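FORM 12-B: Structure-to-Sequence Request
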């Protein structure tokens, strides 16, 4: 990762050698999607930088990542791994820009833009004191994704009618160490105004009450125009706060027929074939000898696969002509989940001498006991799977929601991109499906309907508040008894397998199939670090071990150290979107839960203490 080098060439002037861009540091490719993506701040020693948009990246050698179903959902032609340039090509790859611009010196206490310290090239130190500078701890952001430096001058000159900087003084920043609170962080000015602490700066209306409005700045995008008249009130945030950057990510599993055979062979070349006719495609296949290691296919097979992909990309979605973009995106997402559900419910055995990204087989032992005692009608051992995760946009201040308007999703490039950064991970998992008849009967229990309605009403109120007065339809909440049950089941199994199987719970992930007549849960390992490659998660799906795990998990769920407060709770969790769920029983690390630890209720599993509302496993 490197900042953009300055211009060193003018028209009519002999060209000077271009100075190599400064190499700031290294991060993993996956982190450029999940942690330090476009618009996120990253600390490098005693400096802070903002990752630039993807239109500034050098992708000439960035590998392609193919996942046609996800490409269609996101409306792009494909995906690429974030670039990883060689050591001697520091100017290539991912670019960054210095942010925040305000720095302070711990010795002389000056607080001013970085350029005014006159630091030597490649260093961040005060030229007068020879001390390392400290980037501003505070920034200002709004829910539309805009970001700028905290307005220190206006904060310290409260009540002063002068325009910014006209007092002629210099700002100072010091922490007196008397307490660990913001009261000990003091901002002053040499013009003689009294020092002011940062206490109260994080109040929701603190900046608005001072007449400070969002300036509509997007410093991560090169030459981005200012978005004037932004209606969102700005908020003060800590530079390292998680609220500064929430990624909006989408993922899909690679399933047949897209993950094997001729489809997998064509995937790396589809962008070349996409606009060509059959004769040109056949000629390219022969000239490049693409099928020399695949005698079972012909050039006609390649042409047929290209035509099939073209048809899939242009196929209309039911109701897409009149639906809004958000509705269409949800339809695409539903299509993805339904396709995965069908593949997970159908055996796809491993075939010798064939490269497969998806292998799914039933266990050798029958699941009869699990069906009779626990209502599990099917267990599938997913011995091999591939998942693609793509970064579409990001949010600030408020975490992503299905009701977010496009304005609330900050773009990762100045113009609409035809590709998105993504990475792929491989793993294994276990898929379980509940008995549909037993589930339908349990779903009609009045107590469970009442509890689910309570969560759904709170969720829809939140979604309605996010939409505001835009007139956009409120997306339906998935909070049904079936979804709450499947979600709680996934969480107790992940917690149990992290204890019994030796996996950190953060290395296990869930995928809930609870809409449109689906009734299944996939728990899998798909992580880019070593914790996801331990092996053995498939062994947990063998009926004997699964029955023991499920029995132990339900026993743990029957009692929580926070009971009776937990099980009798009328509302819990963020925005009251849980009922009987807390950190002592159901909640998981954020990387494991695809729903941000909301829409959970332990009573769906074991019922309520008074026995009036039965759980599915009672």
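FORM 12-B RESPONSE
SEQUENCE OUT:
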């Amino acid at each position: 990762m490197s900042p953009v080098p300055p211009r060193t060439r003018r028209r009519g002037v002999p060209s000077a050698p271009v100075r190599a861009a400064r190499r700031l540091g290294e991060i993993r490719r996956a982190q450029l999607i999940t942690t330090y993506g476009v618009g996120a701040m990253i600390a490098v020693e005693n400096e802070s930088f903002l990752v630039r948009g993807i239109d500034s990246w050098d992708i000439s050698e960035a590998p392609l990542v193919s996942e046609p179903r996800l490409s269609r959902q996101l409306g792009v032609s494909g995906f690429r791994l974030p670039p990883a340039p060689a050591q001697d090509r520091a100017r290539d790859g991912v670019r960054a820009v210095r942010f925040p611009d305000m720095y302070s010196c711990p010795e002389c206490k000056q607080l001013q833009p970085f350029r005014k310290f006159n630091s030597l090239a490649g260093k961040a130190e005060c030229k007068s004191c020879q001390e390392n500078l400290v980037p501003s701890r505070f920034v200002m952001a709004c829910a539309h994704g805009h970001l700028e430096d905290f307005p220190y001058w206006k904060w310290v000159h409260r009540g002063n009618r002068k325009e910014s900087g006209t007092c002629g003084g210099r700002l100072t920043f010091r922490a007196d160490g008397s307490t660990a609170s913001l009261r000990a962080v003091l901002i002053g000015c040499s013009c003689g105004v009294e020092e002011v602490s940062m206490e109260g700066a994080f109040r929701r209306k603190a900046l608005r009450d001072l007449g400070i409005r969002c300036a509509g700045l997007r410093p991560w995008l090169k030459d981005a125009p200012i978005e004037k008249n932004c209606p969102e009130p700005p908020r003060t945030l800590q530079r390292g706060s998680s609220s500064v950057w929430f990624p909006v990510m989408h993922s899909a599993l690679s399933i047949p027929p897209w993950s094997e055979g001729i489809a997998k062979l064509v995937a790396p070349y589809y962008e070349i074939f996409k606009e060509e006719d059959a004769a040109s495609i056949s000629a390219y296949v022969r000239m490049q000898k693409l099928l020399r290691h695949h005698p079972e296919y012909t050039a006609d097979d390649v042409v047929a696969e290209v035509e099939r992909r073209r048809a899939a990309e242009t196929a209309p979605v039911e109701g897409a002509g009149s639906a809004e973009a958000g509705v269409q995106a949800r339809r695409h997402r539903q299509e993805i989940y339904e396709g995965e559900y069908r593949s997970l419910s159908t055996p796809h055995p491993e075939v010798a001498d064939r490269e497969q990204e998806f292998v799914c087989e039933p266990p050798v032992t029958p699941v009869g006991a699990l069906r009779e005692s626990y209502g599990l009608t099917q267990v599938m051992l997913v011995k091999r799977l591939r998942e693609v995760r793509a970064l579409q946009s990001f949010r600030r201040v408020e975490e992503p929601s299905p009701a977010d308007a496009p304005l609330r999703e900050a773009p990762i490039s100045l113009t609409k991109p035809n590709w998105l950064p993504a990475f792929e991970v491989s793993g294994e998992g276990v898929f379980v499906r509940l008995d549909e008849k037993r589930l339908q009967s349990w779903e009609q229990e009045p107590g469970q309907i009442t509890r689910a309605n309570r969560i759904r009403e709170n969720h829809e109120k939140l979604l309605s508040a996010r939409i505001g007065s835009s007139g956009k339809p409120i997306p339906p909440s998935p909070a049904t008894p079936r979804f709450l049950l499947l979600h709680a089941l996934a969480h107790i199994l992940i917690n149990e397998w992290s204890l019994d199987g030796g996996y950190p719970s953060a290395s296990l992930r869930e995928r809930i199939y609870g809409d449109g007549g689906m009734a299944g849960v996939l728990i899998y390992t798909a992580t880019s670090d070593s914790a996801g490659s331990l092996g053995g998660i498939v062994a947990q799906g063998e009926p004997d071990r699964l029955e023991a795990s499920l029995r132990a998990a339900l026993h743990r769920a029957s009692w929580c150290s926070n009971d009776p407060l937990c099980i009798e709770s009328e509302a819990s969790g963020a925005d009251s979107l849980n009922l009987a769920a807390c950190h002592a029983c159901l909640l998981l690390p954020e990387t494991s839960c695809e729903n941000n630890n909301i829409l959970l209720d332990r009573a769906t599993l074991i019922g309520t203490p008074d026995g009036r509302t039965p759980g599915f496993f009672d």
